[in-house]
Amino acid sequence: MNQSKKVKRSLSTKLATGAITSITALALSAVSLQVIAVGSEDTIKQQPLSAEFKKLDINSDKQLSQDEALKDKDVGEYFSRADENKDGILTVDEYAAFKSSIQQKRVAAYIDDATVTAKVKAELIKDNGLDGINISVETHKGQVILSGFVSTGEQLLRAVHIASGVSGVQSVKNALVIKG
What we know:
Blueprint: H1 3-38, H2 41-46, H3 48-56, H4 66-69, H5 73-76, H6 79-82, H7 92-126, E1 135-140, E2 143-150, H8 153-164, E3 171-178
Parallel strand pairs: 2-3
Antiparallel strand pairs: 1-2
Helix pairs in contact: 1-7
């Protein structure tokens, strides 16, 4: 193997290792955010969600009607799901529990996209027929967007094929440009 290929292989290995480290760090961050978001009833009441609840509680009766909850885009649209005891009003605990679950889902979706991005990038870098370092990968809700430059049409197809085969990828949008 010539020196250039050895350097490229070494760099690819380092980048793949870095991607795995990033995934691990993101996963640990998500766990830590979930622990903070859940907490005990006392800590939930002290969280910013309690302040949000008070702002929505226009008549200060310590409960939210459906009309009051409509001002919160997360809760208003899903009022019946947030109303756990189905009494037509939300207590601060019902509001906080529902908002926390929405926030946790958002964090999980972000972590999932970051994980998919790292996996795709690692696979592109590992492939001998591609210069994966020159391909940018972005993911949103499982849709992967490839951009950057490749030398041939075969490399373009190979990159799309590799990205499509990664677990968690829902679809691949190709924005790669053949240079030359």
